[in-house]
Amino acid sequence: MRIYNTLTRNVELIKPNEEGKIAMYTCGPTVYHFAHIGNLRSYIMEDVLEKTLRYEGYDVKRVMNITDVGHLSSDADTGEDKMLKGAKREHKTVMEIAKFYTDAFFSDCAKLNIKTPDAVEPATNCIPEFINMIKVLLEKGYAYQAGENIYFDTSKLDNYYVFGNQNEDELMVGVRDDVTEDTNKRNKNDFVLWFTKSKFEDQALKWDSPWGVGYPGWHIECSCISMKHLGEYMDIHCGGIDNMFPHHTNEIAQSESYLGHKWCNYWFHVHHLNDESGKMSKSKGEFLTVSLLESKGYNPLVYRMFALQSHYRKPLTFSYDALDQVAATYKKLVNKINAIPEEGSVDEAEVKAWHDKFAETVGNDVNTAMGITLLYDALKADVNGATKRAIIGDYDYVLGLDLLKAASSAENEAGAEDPELVAYVESKIAERKEAKKAKDFAKADSIRAELLEKGIVIEDTREGVKWKRA
Ligand code: AMP
Ligand code: ZN
Questions:
Q1: Considering every ligand atom, which ligand is closest to the CA of 240?
Q2: What share of the chain is helix, strand, coil (3-state, %, to 5)?
């Protein structure tokens, strides 16, 4: 597997620390609101990276944090506390907000076939670990106390800008209107490890620490949570491109100062999904969510396919027109798969040859668009139907588009489409709806019974009445 490593700015072959194993870490969501489909673009591409590694035979352990404390709305350790803002908006406690949006996040992930990482850890679970790391950083002289907060001293590092491409002038703290410079800082990029002097008087979550009651800075959680589950050495660290600075830069600064050695070898960054007006964000009011797409009638997997059709290292612009095109492509693809004849038995050697081709294609810096092209090639290949289906199932482990499942339900739909029967059932459903509206439940029940006698089962769902053959 080769990926573009932001640390070296080269596409590199991944050489794990331990043969056959990959220790992988993903920056998780800040759970003060729903994830937008931009956030989910990052998680889809990271899911593909993980699954491609597994597809190649690696034993992957992937860890994710849940940011449920201390993440401020500016990247500069100032601004508004996002969790608190969410709690105020919804008249709930911070922990209720965190629980609700953590569940919502994993429900969105499930709809997009994003596998849940092997370990998921909320930041609020690990306060003792954070305090311990901060203590060590103070002992080693990498941190200082000022204005009752603890700061990381970036001047102690030979090379703070590890990703190399930051422009110091652009990063000047205080340039944005809503960001006020913190005069406690010795250097402008120093960052808070622990707050005891909070500007939020009603800060909901606070813990005792050797420096007083307070709460952690944002960056410390990823260093501690990754080490808790993966140990001192990590192979791949992932996140959206906006995490590169200051979040990942600060993670590296504190982790390597704490450990005294290199921490993570490969950094994988997914570029942004933008809407037509520019950058997508949760704080801009109306934002695009999986539920919104569903309410407009889109299958979430169509969005996954939309993401897979472009490269993760290019910005991507979302539009409904583009999504409609992918919806049509998905439908055609499913119909093509549905039309594969049920014949022959699986030729394992063929499946293996196609498997290797796919591993090489997608394994070349997560080239998902080429992976989909290869899937179309497989559909045209000179192999029997059973083998074709086996190849599609094999590719779909990585693509995650539920292709065989969608094809088999398309088959069922097609089987039921006797126009006369459809017209009859629909007229009966309409009649039953009227009866229910008039509270004539006896009539409604008799219509249901009449349909059942003809072998049709009806079911009341949120999306309306559904029917199928018994
Ligand atoms: P957050 O919940 O804000 O911590 O973000 C969760 C993940 O989504 C992080 O990895 C971010 O880098 C990533 N992210 C944020 N905005 C976008 C976007 N517009 N497109 C792709 N990824 C994003
Ligand atoms: Zn992180």
A1: 1
A2: 45, 15, 35
Q: CATH 1.20.120.1910 in the chain, residues?
A: 319-415
Give the ligand whose atoms come closest to the C-alpha of residue 224. Answer: 2
CATH class, 2-284 region:
alpha beta
Position 143 pLDDT exceeds 80: yes
Distance 226 CA to ligand 2 centre (A): 9
Both tokens of 86, joined, read 């969410």
Domain 319-415 in this protein, CATH class: mainly alpha
- Cα 240 to ligand 1 centroid, rounded to whole Å: 5
Neighbours of 365 (CB within 10 A): 18
Would you state the torsion angle of the CA atoms of residues 117, 122, 127, 130, taken in this order, to the nearest 10 degrees? Answer: 40
DSSP tag of 208? -
Q: What is the pTM of this model?
A: 0.86
- 122 C-alpha vs ligand 2 centroid, how far in Å? 12
* Closest Cα to atom 22 of ligand 1: 39
pLDDT digit string (tens) for 354-396? 999 999 999 999 999 999 999 999 999 999 999 999 999 999 9
Tens-digit pLDDT profile for residues 410-433 = 766 655 557 788 788 889 999 999
Residue spans in the chain of domains classed CATH 3.40.50.620: 2-284
Which residue has the CA at smallest separation from atom 7 of ligand 1?
A: 39
